[in-house]
Amino acid sequence: MSPWRTSHTCVEEELQVEAPEEVTEGETADLTCKTTCSLTDPTFIWYKDGHPLTTKTIKNNQLHLQTVSSEDAGSYSCAVRGSQHLRSTAHSLRVRYPPKRVSVSISPSGEIVEGSSVTLTCSSDGNPPVKIYTWFKGSTPVGEGKTYSIPNIRSEDSREYTCQSRNDHGERRSTAVYLNVLYPPKNVSVSISSSGHTLVGFSVNLTCSSDGNPPVKIYTWFKEGGTSPVGSGHSYSPLQSGSYYCEAQNQHGAQRSDLVPVDLNGHSVILYGAAGVGLCGVAVFLAGFFWMRRKRQNRNVHDPDCVNTGLRVKPPDDDSCSVNVYENVTKAGLRAPPPDDDSSSAQDYENLTGSGLSAPPPDDDSSSTDDYENITDDYENVTA
Description:
Helices cover 24% and strands 38% of the residues. The protein has 5 helices and 25 strands. The strands form 5 sheets. Strands 2, 4, 5, 8, 9, 11 and 14 form a 7-stranded mixed β-sheet that branches. Strands 12, 13, 15, 16 and 17 form a 5-stranded antiparallel β-sheet that branches. The model is unreliable at 1-9, 267-278, 304-326 and 328-369 (pLDDT under 50).
């Protein structure tokens, strides 16, 4: 037998793979193809799961796995080029890694209607296999186990749900799934608002509010005691006093609000009362304004006469001048007519100068004619 044939018979019987049984993801691994035969510069070929490897680094009889991943797990064997049909015994390489590809499925699929039951199932890939599952509603943990069931689901259960898978090498959370629970209208209520534009026109507006999924788009208005609708839409303006309610409806049901009383006559009384209070306020303001103006005018006229008459030794002040003139006039037995609002400053000036008194010329804020006439008569009576 030739040496060549002997060596190849040896290859068939003695090729084997030396490698670790298990490696953790992220580590390195070296697989070696060994033989007890004497071969002259052989070329080795590596196989994974029966398929030739062409992308891995091969150094002589060694296969080097840099940064092992879960995809590197499998069955490896080797052979010598030219005798590929004579392969070594396969060697199984296991890779440990944390959970991957974590996902959540919903059963049953399709629309979720309030009152039905829903089951969520968590799936993941890991080595060792995942045995610890935790369920979250938003950020709050709500359950454990591979599945999570919600019997008699409610509108409050509408939320994002996630599953967290864990094994000895780490944990990972799934992408969130949203449970969109459909339900008929709830919490139907009516609010009332009013606005007056004229003294005889008053508008009352009723607005219907509700909570539903899908959102309510059909609103119908009824008056107590009636069987036919009186209006439709989100808002309604009644034309008569009475009690009203609205009915909200979507694809999954309908609900009515409580009765809301509307008194249009009462609103009119309130409007008239408010208008009357406003007019009274304006009248009070105008009366105070004219009173202050009249008081200022009287001071401007009385001040020079009080000082020039010399009837009192004490010099006049702001609050005594008018009183002194009044006392002098009273002692003389005179009676002064009440002043009118349309006195002329020019006439006041003529009366003073006719009596022999020296008076300053009138200005824009001079007092009434009767005030000057009273002062002149007072002066004449006293000097007589």
